[in-house]
Amino acid sequence: MSDTPSAAFSSVATYYEALFDPEARLAREGSLLRSVFEQAPGRRVADIACGTGIHAAFLAGLGAEVDAFDLSAEMIEVARHKRPHQGIRYHCGDMREVRGGPWALALCLGNSLSLAGGIKGVARTFSSVGNALSEGGRFLIQVLNYRHPDALQSRHTVITKSVEGAEITAVKSLVPFHEHVLLSLNFFAHDNGRFHTCSDTAVLYPLALPDLEHCASASGLRIVETWGGYSQQPFHPTASPDLIVLFRK
Ligand SMILES: C[S@@+](CC[C@H](N)C(=O)[O-])C[C@H]1O[C@@H](n2cnc3c(N)ncnc32)[C@H](O)[C@@H]1O
Question: Which residues contact 192 (CB under 8 A, 6 or more apart)?
Fold first, then answer.
């Protein structure tokens, strides 16, 4: 497979959260995160490709000391503004070369590993995370399951939401293209009769369990558990919406 460019969501950082409800996400994702954090051998956590910082803030609320990284300086600015917390240090940083630690737990959630720029970028991410984890440290990743029937078709989602007085219409498209998936994010903010628009695109690199297993073992990590979704159902290669994997150093 060819390499793909990595893509930060800088242009859309201001409106990115119009795509989801952070509280609803944490209600769905929080119990798995909590139990993984409780089993980690320490409180130091890295949230890699943290976006607006919802997972960093959730874990900081449980007592974690979090280093939260995103490639986009604009996204880090939004995260700092929306979710300041004394337990979080925000950094502008590339998942493929994160430095710091030692962390007891690293997270890469929200399908972010698919943005690493192809299998070489994924391998570099595992290598840099593997180096920065403490002995027995965990790495939790969540990507979309690209073999699910929904992921094999083009999908377009339209969400409307009111954000700080502006009416936002967000349009998200996922279009399979040969071995990749083309992602477009478009935001139309309507405020006092005027429109402000912004867009970002990314080429997603679909990841399967053997890819992850290969990159992990080359970096001294092994799989502890796999799930097919945040409710911790077993992973099924064609029926699960997500692929969630917990690795251990
Ligand atoms: C789909 S969002 C997920 C954000 C967050 N983890 C969540 O679950 O809400 C992907 C994020 O990855 C960031 N990103 C893309 N490439 C990256 C890279 N090479 N290193 C670090 N962050 C990256 C983007 O800027 C964006 O904020």
Answer: none
pLDDT digits (tens, 9 = 90+) for 193-219: 999 999 999 999 999 999 999 999 999
Give the pLDDT confidence of 29-46 residue by residue, as tens digits: 999 999 999 999 999 999
Q: Which domain holds residue 169?
A: 149-203
The answer to whether the CB of 96 is under 6 A from ligand 1 is yes
Question: Would you say the CB of residue 50 lies under 6 angstroms from ligand 1?
Answer: yes
Q: Are residues 94 and 169 in the same domain?
A: no
Strands of the 194-204 sheet, one edge to the other: 155-163, 166-177, 180-191, 194-204
* DSSP element (H, E) containing 169: strand 166-177
Both tokens of 121, joined, read 């970028």
Note whether 109 and 211 are same-domain residues. Answer: yes
- Contact 236/228 with Cβ under 8 angstroms? yes
Residue of minimum CA distance from atom 13 in ligand 1: 49
Ligand 1 lined by 90 (C-beta under 6 Å): no
Ligand 1 atom, smallest distance to 111 CA:
1
Q: Which amino acid, residue 84?
A: P
Specify the CATH number for the domain of residue 88: 3.40.50.150
Global confidence as pTM? 0.97
In a domain, 221, yes or no: yes
**Protein residue closest via CA to atom 8 of ligand 1:** 110
Predicted confidence (pLDDT) per residue in 164-198, tens digit: 788 999 999 999 999 999 999 999 999 989 999 99
